[in-house]
Design brief:
12 strands; Arc Repressor Mutant, subunit A; four-stranded antiparallel sheet; five-stranded parallel sheet; Rossmann fold; alpha/beta
Length: about 230
């Protein structure tokens, strides 16, 4: 089996070396770059299996790199792990709103980094157990192809947004708590605030267009996809 390719874009040399050493030790192919512009070019030239992207970079920052990659068809589904030295919730929410799949605040332990990378790769490669399309009103979810259409028109969702919609579509009318949605979208080892789920829901509704009204908020509990 081919080794997964990981691109690390980080301008702090010690962190770049730390990530490269520990991920290579786990058997991954690792490439390191120090600027957002270099990272964007490298991904466009040869997309890796996973991108580790620092939030604060010289020149083009990580948020702009993430935004551009998510806007391009070839890289819209690329798993992105965001590194941030800022512990403020607003910075994390901004990164996730732009399409990052996970985040890791600095400083971090090599074991945590490796665990997050492996978890993201597992989830991106996972094939849903039930591959039959799910249809709720005008929304159709194709688990096997990981595609979503609304009224027959394709909708481009990030990896996390697709998992959230798939979770809701499996039981229309059922109310899912934020914790249940996080478990379905990222796994039970992911720890974020409830606000993160709310941001993902705002993005999902926006991408679904008028059909976004089907994603209903149940105040004080969570969300559901209306029957």
């Amino acid at each position: 089996m081919a080794r997964a390719r990981i691109l690390v874009v980080e301008d702090e040399e010690d962190i770049l070396e730390l990530g490269h050493f520990n991920l290579a030790k786990e058997g991954f192919q690792v490439e390191g770059l120090a600027s957002g512009e270099e990272g964007l070019r490298a991904v466009r030239t040869r997309p890796p299996d996973l991108l580790i992207l620092d939030l604060m970079l010289p020149g083009m920052d990580g948020l702009e790199v993430c935004r551009r990659l998510r806007a391009e068809t070839a890289t819209e589904g690329l798993p992105i792990l965001m590194l941030t030295a800022k512990a403020e919730e607003a910075d994390v929410v901004t990164g996730l709103a732009l399409g990052a799949d996970d985040y890791l605040p600095k400083p971090f332990s090599p074991r945590v980094l490796t665990a997050r990378v492996k978890a993201l790769l597992r989830r991106s490669a996972a094939v849903p157990a039930e591959n039959a399309p799910l249809r709720v009103h005008e929304i159709e979810v194709h688990p096997g192809r990981r595609e979503v259409t609304v009224g027959g028109a394709p909708v481009n969702l990030t990896f996390t947004e697709f998992n959230i919609l798939h979770c809701l579509a499996q039981r229309p009318g059922w109310v899912f708590t934020r914790d249940q949605i996080l478990d379905a979208a990222r796994g039970d080892d992911y720890h974020v605030t409830s606000r993160t789920v709310d941001v993902q829901m705002v993005n999902l509704r926006k991408k679904l267009g008028p059909a976004g009204r089907r994603v209903e908020t149940v105040r004080g509990v969570g969300y559901r996809l209306a029957e």
